[in-house]
Design goal:
The protein has six helices and two strands, in the order H-H-H-H-H-E-E-H. A hairpin with a 3-residue loop joins strand 1 (132-138) and strand 2 (142-145). By secondary structure, it is mainly α. The chain has one domain. Strands 1-2 form a two-stranded antiparallel sheet.
């Protein structure tokens, strides 16, 4: 089967950006849109509240562990038993929250992974002979990168400023502050 033929069906996803901005800037714009979509999906599905609950529980367990060490040094076995029980309770709570968050991560990945694969696959076939000369020599790639390398570089660069924007917008969509 000619996989390039399949990629042609997805050209309308990337062609407007490439025609309007040229290959390099077009892929930067496409990467920004895809990264923003991915960040929004993760923010809406997972949310900050559960991640903050996990962090809070970890912090409590650390405090209990410090107190436990002090109690062991002082020989307060009643306090040691009490703290070990609290640590066990928080460990169980943390495990339950982490299980829920992991399932949400999987759900978000199943939503975002196919579009990423389609776009990278389409870019590879649409711009198969296109390369970008870098102003420096990069390890493993030299001083030229192809469309997939440029897309990955762009996606990495735009993810930093877009993440807070996605968090803010997801909070507004969920009805937060």
């Amino acid at each position: 089967m000619d996989w390039g033929h399949l990629a042609r069906y997805f050209y309308p996803l990337v062609d407007p950006f490439i025609r309007c901005f040229g290959p390099a800037l077009g892929m930067l714009v496409a990467a920004a849109i895809v990264v923003f979509f991915i960040d929004m999906v993760y923010e809406l599905i997972i949310g900050r509240e559960e991640l903050e609950r996990i962090q809070s529980t970890f912090n409590k367990v650390k405090e209990y562990q410090k107190e436990l060490e002090k109690a062991k040094i002082l020989g307060d076995f009643e306090r040691v038993r009490e703290l070990e029980e609290k640590i066990r309770d928080h460990a169980q709570e943390t495990f339950e929250i982490q299980s829920k968050v992991m399932m949400k991560h999987l759900k978000a990945m199943l939503i975002t992974f196919p579009p990423i694969i389609v776009i990278i696959y389409t870019l590879e076939y649409r711009l198969a002979h296109w390369t970008l000369k870098l102003p420096f020599h990069a390890p493993l790639v030299g001083n030229e990168i192809g469309p997939v390398g440029w897309y990955i570089l762009c996606a990495t660069a735009v993810s930093v400023p877009l993440k807070p924007l996605a968090e803010l917008l997801a909070t507004k969509v969920r009805g937060g502050e």
